[in-house]
Amino acid sequence: MRIAISTDNGYVSAHFGRCSSYTIVEIEGDKVVKQEEISNPGHSPGFLPRFLAEKGVNLLITGGIGQRAKDFFNQFKIEVISGVQGPVDEVIGQFLRHELQPGEELCEHEHDAQSHHQEHHPHSEEPETSPASSTFHLSADKLSAGGLICFTSKGPDLDSELEEAFGRAPYFIFIDPKTLKFEAYNNEAVNLAHGAGIQSGQLMAEKGVTVLFTGQVGPNARRVLEAAGIQIIELSQEKRKIREIINSLKSS
Fold it and tell me: In which residue ranges of the chain is CATH 3.30.420.130 found?
């Protein structure tokens, strides 16, 4: 059989039609015999199901898809598993082990069976507003769990300011709370048209983050973070340097 996975930068895309590419996997028995990544070929209602069917695809795996689009795929005898997230290679492994399960839709609005919408849709990565706060409560069990603390940052060092938009942060600063050693990570999802928050949330889970300091988090990214057990501390509308927040942690 052949499966198609909506893909953005090595992760399952939250939007089946808005992804940059599709990972096409040919499976015989319980082994992958061929795997390739192809660019998203374009749009128009019904085009993608037909295009993938012509490539012999039997199953589509994606983060989110509307019912109308599912109906198009069903017409071409293509099964759909949606609500899936994580690195593509891990998802393939889950499928081979018969562990892959559909989850909650990561895309909240209806899609045509196409890669780009003609009309504008409000996107779920728009940040939620929350009151500014100069104090925060850090869960002790999150620190004792041995995970990392992450800060969304405007720059690659501790003297940079906290970035307000989670998914659009230029950098993530990962800190080991025991040693205070840090790593600055260039956020590759920052320029994605859609799904930056979700992909950033998946990165947090992959890195083993237990506490996230940021400005604002959209609802879809929040679901990913909360599913991974990550405590979210929002310091909205505060221009604070990463080092200042760390010093506040050390003195609390």
Answer: 2-96, 140-251
Mean pLDDT of the 106-127 span: 38
pLDDT tens for each residue of 61-97: 998 888 888 888 988 999 999 989 889 999 999 999 9
Q: What are 59's strand-pairing partners?
A: 3, 79
Q: What is this structure's pTM?
A: 0.52
CATH number of 2-96: 3.30.420.130
Nearest to 82 by CA among 67, 103, 66: 103
pLDDT score of 132:
33
Could you tell me whether strands 59-61 and 2-8 are parallel, antiparallel, or unpaired per DSSP bridges? Answer: parallel
Assigned CATH for 140-251: 3.30.420.130
Q: Where are the alpha helices (DSSP H) in 175-239?
A: 196-207, 219-227
- Cα Rg of the chain, angstroms: 20
Task: Kindly tell me the burial class for residue 113, based on how many C-beta atoms sit within 10 Å of its own C-beta (0-12, 13-18, 19 or more).
Answer: buried
Give the angle subtended at the CA of 132 by the CAs of 182 and 147, to the nearest 5°. 30
SS3 of residue 202 by DSSP = helix
Mean pLDDT of the chain: 79
How far apart (Å, rounded) are the C-alpha atoms in residues 245 and 252?
11
